[in-house]
Amino acid sequence: VEAAAVARWQGPGQTADGHRVDVLANVQDGLGARAAAATAAQGVGLFRTELCFLDRDTEPTVADQADIYGEVLAAFPSSKVVVRTLDAGSDKPLRFANHPDEANPALGIRGVRIALQDSGILDRQLDAIAAAATTAGASPWVMAPMISTPAEAEWFAAKVRERGLVPGVMIEVPAAALLAEKILAHVDFLSVGTNDLAQYTMAADRMSSELSSFTDPWQPAVLHLLARTAKAGADRNKPVGVCGEAAADPLLACVLVGLGVTSLSCAAAAVGAVGAKLGTVTLDDCQRAAAAVLETADPMAARAAATAILG
Ligand code: PEP
Ligand code: MG
């Protein structure tokens, strides 16, 4: 897609034949949300709340948290905003939440697992999100990171619903992708985090540049798990988004749409390129590319198969 077309893209996200797909931004604070609101992003598909607190020694109060979350909600009034609860641990350590001294932090007590051990931090964060929502007159969606079982999804959803918010979970562990159907019995939406899904599917550290060919989001094994997750959503008529790096690659974004994904969330800087590319292809092209990619055995072949159909 030409630079001029990218700059011109105004949204809403849709294929050339009018199949709608929300193109959303990933943000980490009010400043980032206001910058994202200046693009054609239709909302926020991933608000990484833990990144607001990387410099804190102690847990922010509910009032402090509510102010920070409120800034993001205020940047997108009457738009979809998906708030992720704290994803502490491993590559995003928080001093006030982390589980100390683990031999293997990526496979340890991270994300929602911290809350399962001690739910206080999560309860207070959900109170803060609910307070911010009331102040802003917004109804944000709220999702948990690092869910691996349907029971965890059920536990989390109850807490979110209790506060009048809309519950969902991230699919970033292969076990969760394989049981997406059962997880969807408990929550209203799913969002696939392809960065971690690739890490755990391929058994390759996402932070290691030496292993980047394994964690390539075009890995067919990762795309098969994604296809299964999207199908579970389609069967239950519930939204399934992608908020990992995969959604920032315009060609792969079209393949994801072909797999049945209903929204794409990426860095604000990539929103125009993704939206513009999507506008040049039909849903049928996307579906044919998705089917072709699932037949391949490696990322290079997957890219080639998609390029042959989508350009
Ligand atoms: C992901 O894992 O793909 C994701 C979106 O979450 P994060 O990158 O913050 O772990
Ligand atoms: Mg993740």
Automatic annotation (TrEMBL):
It is found in: Cytoplasm. GO terms for molecular function: phosphoenolpyruvate-protein phosphotransferase activity. It catalyses: L-histidyl-[protein] + phosphoenolpyruvate = N(pros)-phospho-L-histidyl-[protein] + pyruvate. Belongs to the PEP-utilizing enzyme family. Keywords: Cytoplasm, Kinase, Magnesium, Metal-binding, Phosphotransferase system, Sugar transport, Transferase, Transport. Its cofactor is Mg(2+). It is an enzyme of class 2 (transferase). Residues 12-276 form the PEP-utilising enzyme C-terminal domain. This is Phosphoenolpyruvate-protein phosphotransferase. It comes from Antrihabitans spumae. General (non sugar-specific) component of the phosphoenolpyruvate-dependent sugar phosphotransferase system (sugar PTS). This major carbohydrate active-transport system catalyzes the phosphorylation of incoming sugar substrates concomitantly with their translocation across the cell membrane. Enzyme I transfers the phosphoryl group from phosphoenolpyruvate (PEP) to the phosphoryl carrier protein (HPr). Its EC number is 2.7.3.9.
